[in-house]
Description:
three-stranded antiparallel beta sheet; 10 strands; seven-stranded mixed beta sheet; Metal Binding Protein, Guanine Nucleotide Exchange Factor, Chain A
Amino acid sequence: MINGSCLCGAVTYTVSGTIGEITHCHCKTCRKAHGSAFSSVASVQDSDFHLLNKDQLKSYESSTGKHRYFCSNCGSQIYAKRQDTAHIILRLGSLDSDIDSPEKEHIWVSEKANWYCINSQLPERDN
Length: 127
Ligand SMILES: [Zn+2]
Ligand SMILES: [Zn+2]
C-alpha cells in the first residue's frame, strides 16, 4: 500500500493499485499553487485513491472544471481533479512511500520559470 499526507498530517490518503508515469508540469498555475519551479504529478484511478482524513481538505477551481485540492491548515497540495474524468492527478511531493513509476516528460515548458534549467533527457512539451 502507498501512503501520502500533507505537511501537518491532517490530510492522509492511501493508493491501492498503480501510480502512472510521472510528469513534471511547468505551467504557471502549478508554479503558483506549489510555490516552486514545477509540479511532479501522476494519474491515479479514482477507485484506487482513498482519502482517510479529509476534514481540512479544500479545493480551488484554478481553471474551469479543474479543482486543485489542498490542506487548508498547512497549504500542501494533494491532488487535482478534472470534471468528467475517472482519475485524479496526484501531487507526488505529498507521498510518504517510495514508488517505482518511471518519469515520462516535462510539460508546459512554454511557461517554465526562466530561472530554472531543465537538466534531464526527458522529452519536453510546450503545453
Ligand atoms: Zn495539512
Ligand atoms: Zn501545471
